[in-house]
Design goal:
With about 120 residues, the protein is mainly α. The chain has 4 helices and 2 strands; from the N terminus they run αααββα.
């Protein structure tokens, strides 16, 4: 049977006394552990995606005679034009939302990166 650390043995070993404060502290420790594991899993995912991006970049660079400067220039250009203009009110819409935060108009998600 799984032990969650609330038994006599665990209390003695870890110094828990079974009070509400003690249980609250234990619950917070378990939540912090879950969140830590979630952050670690996300970091692993980011690392894998970074590796994929680097591999793709080396292939593209080799096959199309591009340089690091070309890549950096394109990144800066994309960063500058990150928001699209709302077709209704003309304000800048975030790329992260396909709806204007000011007037509610739908944006025109043009490419796959915007749609999915
Ligand atoms: Zn708008």
């Amino acid at each position: 049977m799984a032990s969650f650390g609330f038994g006599k043995k665990s209390r003695r070993k870890r110094g828990f006394d079974g009070t509400d404060d003690d249980l609250t502290a234990r619950l917070r420790m378990l939540q912090a552990k879950d969140e830590t594991q979630e952050v670690e899993a996300l970091q692993e995912k980011v690392d894998r995606l970074t590796l994929i991006c680097r591999a793709l970049w080396t292939l593209v660079r080799e096959h199309h005679d591009l340089s690091e400067t070309d890549l950096v220039n394109r990144m800066e250009e994309m960063k500058r034009t990150e928001g699209a203009e709302c077709p209704e009110c003309g304000r800048i819409m975030s790329r992260h939302h396909n709806r204007c935060l000011y007037c509610g108009a739908e944006g025109s998600a043009a490419g796959a990166f915007d749609r999915f």
